[in-house]
Amino acid sequence: MTSPVRLALLGCGTVGSDVVRLLHEQSADLAARIGAPLEIAGIAVRRLGRDRGDLPVDDSLFTTDPLGLIKRDDVDVVVEVVGGIEPARGWLVEALRAGKSVVTANKALLAEDGATLHDAAAEGGADLYYEASVAGAIPLLRPLRESLHGDRITRVTGIVNGTTNFILSAMDATGAGFAEALEEATELGYAEADPTADVEGFDAAAKAAILASLAFHTRVTAADVHREGITEVTAADVASAKAMGCTIKLLCIAARGVDAAGGETVNVRVHPAMIPLTHPLARVGDAFNAVFVEADAAGPLMFYGRGAGGAPTASAVLGDVVAVARNRIAGVHQASESAYADLSVRPMGEALTRYHISLDVADRPGVLASVAGVFARHEVSIATVRQGPAGGDAELVIVTHVAPDAALAATVRELRGLDTVRSVTSVLRVEGGA
């Protein structure tokens, strides 16, 4: 067996601690798979002396100098589970340019400035692996990057945030409102004390950017992703979805398209949407994640599992560690990135979508004609209309055919100003053929 592969671990919180435990518990198997033992050269933490339970490492391995640890000659691989943009970006660029492979779970950094990391990896001849950055333990990024490399992916649709999926699943199951479901998620530990990154869609948008970059061989950043959260989803929306044989999920969607000149584009978005109960993603409940991939030759593929948590994320980290360690022993490294397609990112307004719109309207003759006229002016075709009582007025529930999102949004804006419309009570996109 060859000399040990030595790791610098940046961060020892929930995920980092589980990485350490799995390295200890599975040391013999990991060494056999790699052809060399894995050893921890050091662990960078914010504070020394903190009680870390029964973590199976010597206290002498801990340091508060991550950059010094990275620069050590006896470090081969850097594993980063700290998160955030800075100082993590500086640390990882330093490691990659020095030829040290990097394994990271840092979705925010990859989504904001993955290009800098990929360029540094190419410059240093090092590996950059990040399976744990999206969907926890689910093997997803490696299949996109390697297994499906010979195919043409057309669309990726996913539930990639466990917190929001738990909240929406609870609303669907109990009829609770958003605030009540969020409170339950917080009590059970599924939501952070400040859940903004989850419920406003920032976390899912970062993951959507990473998925789109891999699927379409194009550099996509979080700034390219249209983002909407779930805070405006109501119990009435959920009930309306049920009446249509649908459920509501926060979806990340990345899809190929064509612009007006016939050039190929990609549209990437995160927003709540109704999907039919027959869709494979509809039954993904609780805090689970799932991603539905559509490719020309392979057809539809479904990836499902736990998308967060210390142990599942640590499992993905160690899978990457094994890969980069084996590459290092073999004296090879993977291509840093595949961004040859360089597709233009299509703005949300040009994306073809469908809307479900609920209106409170005056209960008098001519109302439906005036509403229909608004849709006609914006060249939006109506698929179905359902009318029912709503207090002293009437309720109209309209589902559109596919149209440019900008035209649908303009239709809603005009409806809000119509004198026969008391209020627009709900606007949701519809995905998956409902």
Shape: elongated
Tell me the major beta sheet: 12 strands, mixed
* Count of runs of 4 or more consecutive helical residues: 14
Q: Specify Rg, calculated over alpha carbons.
A: 24 Å
Percent range for β-strand residues: 25-35%
Count of extended strands: 18
Determine the N-to-C terminus distance: 57 Å
The structural class is alpha/beta
Unreliable stretches (pLDDT < 50, length at least 5) are: none
How helix-rich are the residues, as a percent range?
Answer: 25-40%
Looking at CATH, the homologous superfamily of the largest domain is Dihydrodipicolinate Reductase, domain 2
Q: If classified by CATH, what would the architecture of the largest domain be?
A: 2-Layer Sandwich
At CATH level 3, the topology of the largest domain is: Dihydrodipicolinate Reductase, domain 2
Average residue-wise pLDDT = 94
How many discrete structural domains?
3
CATH first level of the largest domain: Alpha Beta
Blueprint of the fold:
Layout: E1 5-10, H1 14-25, H2 27-34, E2 38-44, E3 62-63, H3 66-71, E4 77-80, H4 88-97, E5 101-104, H5 107-124, E6 128-129, H6 141-147, E7 153-159, H7 162-174, H8 178-187, H9 196-199, H10 202-216, E8 226-227, H11 235-243, E9 246-258, E10 264-276, E11 288-295, E12 299-306, H12 310-330, E13 344-345, E14 352-361, H13 367-377, E15 382-390, E16 393-400, E17 403-404, H14 405-416, E18 421-430
Parallel strand pairs: 1-2, 1-4, 2-3, 4-5, 5-6, 8-10, 10-13, 10-18
Antiparallel strand pairs: 7-9, 7-11, 9-10, 11-12, 14-16, 14-17, 14-18, 15-16
